[in-house]
C-alpha cells in the first residue's frame, strides 16, 4: 500500500515548478516541505517522472521516516529511478542512513546528517535531487527543517500550504534556498493515524518477508546508540547489592559514568533511585527492538529485529533479510527506538533516553 501514486492530474503550479527546475543549468537540489498529507510524495512522484521523460538523471532522497516509500521504515533512503514509476515504493535503495524510529523529534541531528550525506552522494551522479521530508513542521520539526536546509543548501525549497501556515518556516529557511510556494491540491486527502499505521504495517511485513535469524558477535560488531555495554562489567557484589536494594533480577550491568543495568522486576511497584547514579533498562524493552547494521562509513546496510541477547557470551540473535555477506560488513549494530514484529505489528516506541 502506498498513499501516493503517479498522476498528471495536478494543479497548474506543478507544471510551472517543473519548468523552473528544468531551467536550472546546474545540479538542482529540490527540498519539499509540507504538513502531513499535504501531497509532498505525490508531487515528488510527478516531478521525478516528468524529469526522467526529459532525459534528466533523477535522485530521490526519502526522509519521511514515518511514512517511507522506499523500504525500510525508520531510515532515510536514496534511490536512482531507472525509468518511469507509479510509486516511490517501487524504487530500490542505493543507500540508507539509520534513524531507528518513526517519530524523529529527538533525532534532529541524525535526520539532518542523514539527508546531507545522501544528498551529497546523489549529487555526484544526478542532475536533479528531489528530497522528501516528514510532515513534522511544528516544534522541533522547525529546527529539523532549518538544519537540513542549512546543510544541503537546496536550489529550490518548495512549500505546500493552504493558508500561509508555513510563512514562519519560509522566512526561517530563506537564507538557504529560493522559496517556491504551491497550493495543496484539492484532491489531497487526510489519512487517519490507523491508516498510516496500516501503511507502515504492510511495509514492515514486506521488508521482513524473507528474513532469517543471524548471530551477531557483539565483541566484534560494536553495539551503539545505547548506554548498554559501556564501562566495566559489574562485580558479583555490585549485582547482589542492586538486586537486594531494588528487588531486581539483574541480568547484566556495567559501571561507567553511572551504573547501567539490564533488569527484570522481581516484584511490581515503583523504585526510587537517582537517575544520575543508576540507569535501569527493562529486559523486555530490548525484545523485538529495531536495530541497524552500520558499515564502516556510517551508512546503514539494512535493519533487523533484535530477538535475544546473550550478555555473558556477547552474542545477539537478530532477524533480518540481509544476506550473511552483508551482515559481515557491519562494524556497528545500532539500537533504534521502536519495537516491531516481522508481521508488521508495532509494539511501541521508546524514548531516546530509555536505552
From TrEMBL:
InterPro entries: Clp1/Grc3, CLP1_P, P-loop_NTPase. Residues 34-210 form the Clp1 P-loop domain. It is an enzyme of class 2 (transferase). Keywords: ATP-binding, Kinase, Nucleotide-binding, Transferase. Signal peptide: none annotated. One of its GO terms (molecular function) is ATP binding. Its EC number is 2.7.1.78. It catalyses: a 5'-end dephospho-ribonucleoside-RNA + ATP = a 5'-end 5'-phospho-ribonucleoside-RNA + ADP + H(+); a 5'-end dephospho-2'-deoxyribonucleoside-DNA + ATP = a 5'-end 5'-phospho-2'-deoxyribonucleoside-DNA + ADP + H(+). Its cofactor is a divalent metal cation. GO terms for biological process: RNA processing. Polynucleotide kinase that can phosphorylate the 5'-hydroxyl groups of both single-stranded RNA (ssRNA) and single-stranded DNA (ssDNA). Exhibits a strong preference for ssRNA. This is polynucleotide 5'-hydroxyl-kinase.
Amino acid at each position: 500500500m502506498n498513499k501516493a501514486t503517479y498522476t498528471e492530474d495536478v494543479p497548474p503550479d506543478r507544471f510551472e515548478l517543473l519548468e523552473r527546475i528544468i531551467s536550472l543549468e546546474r545540479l538542482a537540489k529540490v527540498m519539499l516541505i509540507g504538513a502531513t498529507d499535504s501531497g509532498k510524495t505525490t508531487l515528488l512522484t510527478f516531478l521525478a517522472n516528468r524529469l526522467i521523460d526529459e532525459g534528466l538523471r533523477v535522485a530521490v532522497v526519502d526522509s519521511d521516516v514515518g511514512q517511507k516509500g522506499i523500504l525500510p521504515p525508520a531510515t532515510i533512503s536514496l534511490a536512482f529511478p531507472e525509468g518511469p514509476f507509479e510509486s516511490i515504493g517501487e524504487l530500490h535503495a542505493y543507500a540508507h542512513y539509520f534513524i531507528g524510529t518513526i517519530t524523529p523529534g529527538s533525532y534532529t541531528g541524525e535526520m539532518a546528517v542523514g539527508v546531507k550525506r545522501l544528498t551529497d552522494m546523489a549529487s555526484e551522479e544526478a542532475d536533479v535531487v528531489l528530497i522528501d521530508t516528514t510532515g513534522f513542521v511544528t516544534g522541533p520539526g522547525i529546527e529539523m527543517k532549518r538544519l537540513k536546509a542549512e546543510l544541503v543548501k537546496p536550489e529550490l525549497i518548495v512549500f505546500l500550504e493552504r493558508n500561509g501556515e508555513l510563512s514562519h518556516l519560509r522566512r526561517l529557511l530563506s537564507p538557504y534556498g529560493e522559496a517556491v510556494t504551491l497550493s495543496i491540491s484539492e484532491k489531497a486527502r487526510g489519512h487517519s493515524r490507523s491508516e498510516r499505521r496500516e501503511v507502515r504495517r504492510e511495509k514492515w511485513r514486506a521488508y521482513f518477508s524473507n528474513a532469517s535469524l543471524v548471530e551477531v558477535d557483539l565483541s566484534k560488531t560494536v553495539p551503539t546508540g545505547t548506554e548498554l555495554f559501556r564501562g566495566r562489567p559489574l562485580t558479583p557484589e555490585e549485582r547482589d547489592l542492586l538486586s537486594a536494594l531494588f528487588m531486581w533480577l539483574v541480568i547484566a550491568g556495567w559501571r561507567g559514568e553511572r551504573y547501567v543495568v539490564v533488569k527484570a522486576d522481581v516484584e511490581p511497584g515503583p523504585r526510587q533511585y537517582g537517575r544520575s547514579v543508576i540507569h535501569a533498562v527493562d529486559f523486555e524493552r530490548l525484545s523485538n527492538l529495531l536495530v541497524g547494521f552500520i558499515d564502516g562509513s556510517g551508512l546503514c546496510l539494512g535493519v533487523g529485529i533484535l530477538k535475544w541477547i546473550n550478555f555473558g557470551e556477547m552474542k545477539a540473535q537478530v532477524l533480518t533479510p540481509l544476506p550473511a555477506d552483508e551482515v559481515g560488513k557491519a562494524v556497528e549494530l545500532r539500537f533504534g527506538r521502536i519495537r516491531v514484529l516481522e508481521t508488521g505489528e508495532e509494539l511501541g516506541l521508546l524514548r531516546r533516553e530509555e536505552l
